[in-house]
Amino acid sequence: MDNNLYKKSYAFAVRVVKSYQFLSNEKREFILSKQLLRSGTSIGANIAEANGAISKADFSAKLYISYKECLETKYWLSLLKDTGFINQKIFQSMHDDADELAKILYTILNKTRKRR
C-alpha cells in the first residue's frame, strides 16, 4: 500500500478533528460537525485496515469504503459551508484534500480491479 496515502489520510483526519473541535466549541454546532468527524476520520481508519487485509477482495473492500467516506465528507463540508458554519477558504482547502484522497483511492481501486 502507498504509505503516502496513509500519511495524507492521517493528516486529513487531524484536520477534521480540529475542525470538529472548532465547530463544537466556537460555533456550537454539534450535528453536522459530528457527521464530518465520523466520515472524515473513517477514511484513514479504513486505509489502515486495508493495510492489514487478508485478501485482495478485503483490501479492495476497505479502500472502497474509504472512497465512499471521502464522498460523504465532501457532502458534509459543502453543507457546513452553505449553512455558514465554515467559510469558503476553509471549505476549499478541506474539500481539495478530500478530493485528492478520493482520486488516489479511485486510481488504486481501478488498478486493483483490473488485476482480478
Describe this structure in words.
- This protein is mainly α.
- It contains 4 helices and no strands.
- The longest helix is centred in the C-terminal third of the chain and has 28 residues, at 88-115.
- It is elongated.
The major beta sheet can be summarized as: none
| Shape summary | elongated
The mean pLDDT is 95
Count helical runs.
Answer: 4
Distance between the termini: 17 Å
Count all strands and give the number. 0
H and E order: HHHH
Which features characterize this protein?
116 residues, 4 helices, 85% helix, elongated
Describe the protein's topology:
Elements (H helix, E strand, L loop, with lengths): L2 H23 L5 H21 L4 H27 L5 H28 L1
Helix pairs in contact: 1-2, 1-4, 2-3, 3-4
Sum this structure up briefly.
By secondary structure, the protein is mostly helical. The chain is built from 4 helices and no strands.
